[in-house]
Amino acid sequence: MTLGLVVNPTAGKGRGARIGARVHDVLRRRGHAVVDLSAATLAQATDRARAAALEGLDGLVVVGGDGMVHLGVNVVAGTGLGLGIVPAGTGNDIARAFGLPKDVDRAVAAVEHGLDAGARPVDAVRTGAPGLAAHEWFAGALSCGIDADVNARANELRWPRGSARYVRALIPALAAFRPYGYRVTLDDQVWEQPGTLVAVANVPWIGGGLNIAPDAVVDDGLLDVVVAGPFTKPGVVRIFPSIYRGGHVGHPQVQVLRSRSVLIEPVSELGPTPPPAFADGERIGPLPLRAEVVPGALRVLC
Question: Which domains are assigned to the chain?
Answer without folding.
Answer: 2-119 (3.40.50.10330), 127-295 (2.60.200.40)
